[in-house]
Structures are given as C-alpha cells and as structure tokens.
Amino acid sequence: MSVNNKSIFGPVVLTVRNLAAMVAFYQQSIGLKLLEPSGNIAMMGVEDRCLLTLKENPQAKPAGRTTGLYHFAILLPSRAALAMHLRHLIQNGVAVQGAADHLVSEALYLADPEGNGIEIYRDRPEHHWPRANGQLSMASDPLDFTGLLAELGPHEAIVPTLPAGTILGHVHFRVSDLAAAETFYRDILAMDLQLRFGHSAAFLSYHGYHHHVGINTWESLGRPPAPSGAQGLSHVAITVPDRQLWHRIEAAVKRENIPMVRTDSTLELRDPSGNALILTSP
C-alpha cells in the first residue's frame, strides 16, 4: 500500500501555566492561528484545522523526569515552506535546539516557553526514502542549512503563518519500557513497526508512513507517568485511518482488557507508560 499520511492527529492537548504567553509564542514564533479562545482554553491551528489545544492551569507543576511528550511534529507541505519557516525563526531570534536530515525528512527542533518539544519538518517524496533489505532506513545526519535556505529568493518576503496543507505529522512519546510500548502500538493500535533503534527507540505507523508514533526511553527508562494535572501532555487525539483498523483496535482492547472509556465513536485509553490517547473512528 502506498504511503498515506493524511492527518490522523489533532489536536495535541497541553496543560500550560501561562496561557497568554503560550498563545503568543505559538502565534508569533510558530505561526499557528488562534482559532477559538474560550476562557482558559485556546485552540490553535492552520486554516480551520485545530492542531494544538492549550488548557491553562496556573497551579500546574512541572512534570519532572516522567513519561509523556518528547515532541509533537508539525509537517509542512514542501521544502520551500520549511526554508521559509527557518528564515522566520532566524529573523525572530527563536532558538533552534537541533536540526537533522533523517533521510526520509528534514527537521528543525525547538521547545516552547514551558519546555514542550516541537519538531517542524518536511518529508522527502516516498520514492526517495532509502531502504535496506526491505526495511526503511533513517538517520540523524547534519541538515544542509545552505541548501535549505537556497529554496528561497534572497529578497523573498517572510510569511509568518504556516501554509495551507500543514498538518500534525507524528507524535513522539517518552516511555518507561520500550518493549511494552512497542507491543501496545503494534498489537493494540494496529500500527506497523517501521524501524527500531537498538533497545531505546522505535517508530511505528499506519499504511507505510515512516512514523506516526515515535517512542523512546532516552530520558524516561523506568520512570512513572506525570502526576495528574502536571504541565505538559494532557492527551493526543488520533483519528483511526479506516474502519478495518478501527475494528481491529476495538477487538484488541477488549481482548486484552485494557481500561478504557468508550462512546459510540471514541475510545479513551492510555499506553503502558500512561500517555493518554483519545481514538476516534473514521
């Protein structure tokens, strides 16, 4: 089956201490649009699609060394769009914490004012994704900043908002036990394992994408979930791509007696590391 990365995510929901400061950052530095402010909640996105929801709790405590969000990843529709965003970050003095050429994609990494990780990336065309012995190959090579910025004309005006076609491409979680998390996303959520990095990280997806979910134990091996109401990840909403997968997931959740809250069209559950997910039927 050909790669299908239609938007299955959205929104990622974060608990934040200072809503005004966070909204300003995501508007001015990231380029998201404030869609629907409502008291202590702000929904932010591109066009009319909500990618991120911020829920304010001024008493929320830092999560500390726990499982949770490693980063959420904003997928831009082209290399020129990534170049535009890089120039926007540079001109606004936004600190980029890292950058990489992953062979399947090119990515920038940064954090919001409350420490939530963000990846902003573009995909290479699928036929350029390297494979060895039938398995996808990824790496973390240096990003070609010069070549990337050359996508733009020297006097091209900076567009501060994210372009149409921008979606949430993937979410990367901190987990306490890689094997348990991999089993959950593979056998319960019916994702396919695309790549494993030793005993510390794995990448899984639907329909052949390089990854919809990343999991790692780099900072969270054996660690507990964040306390209820802590800063950071509240939950991730996932729309299951098709009915066949939805039925497989329903059956697996029931078979394994995984605690859940079910409605006619959603399943609320947690992975083995306590990361909260709300699954919606297609």
Spell out the key features of this protein.
single chain; 282 residues; alpha+beta; 2,3-Dihydroxybiphenyl 1,2-Dioxygenase, domain 1; 8-stranded mixed β-sheet; 5 helices; 36% strand
Question: In words, what does this structure look like?
Answer:
It is globular, with a radius of gyration of 18 Å. It has a single domain, classed as 2,3-Dihydroxybiphenyl 1,2-Dioxygenase, domain 1 (Roll), CATH 3.10.180.10. The strands form three sheets. It has an eight-stranded mixed beta sheet, covered by helices on one side. It is of the alpha+beta class. The two termini are 18 Å apart. Helices cover 19% and strands 36% of the residues. The protein is built from five helices and 18 strands. β6 (98-101) and β7 form a beta hairpin.
Question: Which helices and strands, and how do they pair?
Answer:
Blueprint: E1 9-16, H1 19-30, E2 33-38, E3 41-46, E4 49-56, E5 68-76, H2 79-91, E6 98-101, E7 105-111, E8 117-123, E9 131-132, E10 135-136, H3 145-149, E11 167-174, H4 178-188, E12 192-197, E13 201-205, E14 213-216, E15 232-239, H5 243-255, E16 261-262, E17 266-270, E18 276-280
Summarize the structure.
With 282 residues, the chain is of the alpha+beta class.
The N- to C-terminal Cα distance equals 18 Å
**Shape annotation:** globular
Lateral arrangement of strands in the main beta sheet? 2-3-4-1-15-18-17-16
What percentage of amino acids are in beta strands?
35-45%
Any low-confidence stretches, pLDDT <50, length ≥5?
A: none
Please give the number of β-strands: 18
The CATH superfamily is known as 2,3-Dihydroxybiphenyl 1,2-Dioxygenase, domain 1
According to CATH, what is the topology? Answer: 2,3-Dihydroxybiphenyl 1,2-Dioxygenase, domain 1
